[in-house]
């Protein structure tokens, strides 16, 4: 039996998966979450990117959840990049990272 904690809302339902049986979710979002965790687990990514000619870092995030098994590869791409000022809120820093159809975007305006 596998146990997951649903991360879609603060209730944090404990979901139990035993072969084809899925129990413990309180709504359909939990059921879809459990099915995705079994087949293609996804995670949002937050990190920082170097600002060129500065000691400052710019906070960034993925524009949508990424496959969990690609997170380390995406972090390597993020660590290769530096960005010039000014930076706009939600500016695309890395477009279509690793062809995953996800952008890395800034989460702060920095001038
Ligand atoms: S199953 Fe539904 S109610 Fe339970 S934590 Fe997930 S989203 Fe919230």
Task: Tag the structure with descriptive keywords.
single chain; CPE0013-like fold; binds iron/sulfur cluster; 10 strands
Give a quick precis of the structure.
With 111 residues, the chain is an alpha+beta fold. It is built from 2 helices and 10 strands.
Task: Tell me what the structure shows.
By secondary structure, the chain is an alpha+beta fold. It has 2 domains: 2-39, no CATH class; 46-106, CPE0013-like (CPE0013-like fold, Roll). It has 2 helices and 10 strands, in the order βββαββββαβββ. It has helices spanning 28-39, 71-80, and strands at residues 2-5, 14-18, 21-23, 42-43, 46-51, 57-62, 66-67, 82-83, 92-94, 104-106. Strands 8-5-6-10-9 form a 5-stranded mixed β-sheet. The protein has a 3-stranded antiparallel β-sheet with strand order 1-2-3, covered by helices on one side. A hairpin with a 2-residue loop joins β2 (14-18) and β3. The protein starts with a strand and ends in a 5-residue tail after the last strand. The model has no long low-confidence stretch (mean pLDDT 95). Iron/sulfur cluster is lined by residues 6, 8-9, 11-13, 25-27, 29-30.
